Amino acid sequence: MSEMKHPTAEHLEEFVEGALPVRERVVVELHLPGCPSCQTQVEELRALFGALSGLARFEPTVGFVDRVIVIHALENLEEFAPSAVFSDRVMASVKVPQSARQSDWQSAWKKQSARAGALISHVSPKSSFGWAMATVMLAVPMLLGGGTVAWLLSRSYVTSSGLWAMTTNWIIEGLQGVGTTVVGGVMRTDLAVWTAANITEFMARAGFSGLGLVAATGAATIMLSSWILYKNLFRTPSREAHYVSYSF
Amino acid sequence: MDYSSLTDQQVVQLAREGRERAFRELIGRYQRPVFSLIYRLVRDREKAEDLAQDTFIKVLNAIDRYDPAFKFSSWIFKIAHNTALDHLRRRTPDTLSLDGSPHATSAAETEATTITPESQDENPEEYTLNRELGSEIETAIGTLRVEYRTAIILCHVEGRPYEEIAQIMAVPLGTVKTYIHRGRKELMVALEHLRV
After folding, report:
1. Which chain A residues contact residue B52 at CB under 8 A?
2. pTM, to two decimals
3. Given this model, what pLDDT does residue A231 score?
């Protein structure tokens, strides 16, 4: 083989590694004796291979195996589940502090106040002109009503007691009309009128004590309704919610 | 039972049954090759030991998912290699130098970012590094690109065939051959001054 046909560097590496096929290996073996350059390369490769194969394997510090085993065991510790009623037992023994309850109530109150504020803000006039118009809308009926009453009382044929009697009669008849309209959907109209008339008669006969009884019953009904609303709408019933909200 | 006489696959099978002795056998067989590979890649003994530990924990945790169609050695070297690479990628680049930061805009900043060696004595870590990786050949290996270094170590120190190295490094066979060829070439240039 002439010097112009040197084996490639890869071929020489494979030759030194012993990975070259027999035929190519023979070609390189025949080339080497007449080529000092390739001989040098082969020697250098052999020296490098020898140095590399002589490299030591390093040892980790003593106890490496034990450490790995322990860490692996710790990472894979089994988790034990408590009984099904565990969480109920824990929550049953949790006492929610009074201060926490109060802050809960206060936050609910603040929230509802903010909602009411937003609603009021939504329906309130947004400009001075708007406020002026709203004032006029309220003031005009009052002025008209007041003016009318004053004009009527200034007449000689109108007395204050007569005006009162007439007005209350109108109001009672009006209430009867409202009752007929509201109840009429489920009751016969004549029955609704009869009921409204009886209620009116009752009020007339019973006087203040009867009215007080009705007012007390109404007030109690409103308070009970408010309490039910507060318990069901403003308060979070679950204990878990308390646990999340308060840090003990 | 004599675990040392069993093949890797047999020991793995016992490890899958949760036998601690099988775990110990696997770690014992591969602790030196794995630690050596990682140590030569990260060149920090303490960090290499942490990473080797992480490697074995990963292996033991995933032993049920190991596919026996592949050689166990390929699998464990692949995990070790990936663990070391992850560390090298995460590592903050060195920003201090003996000459001060190149980004310093004033003499004061240059001085503040300059390292002044107070003593020429080796600290224990430097002593260990110099003793273990301080030889000419180890120093030369340390200058190689990580890809070349991995391929050279697996080929010459661990005696792994090219096909297995390709599996471990997740690159084509031709790429492995290129890495090894270029690595050898760079090593020969780096060690040229030693030739008489």
Report:
1. 60, 64
2. 0.56
3. 55
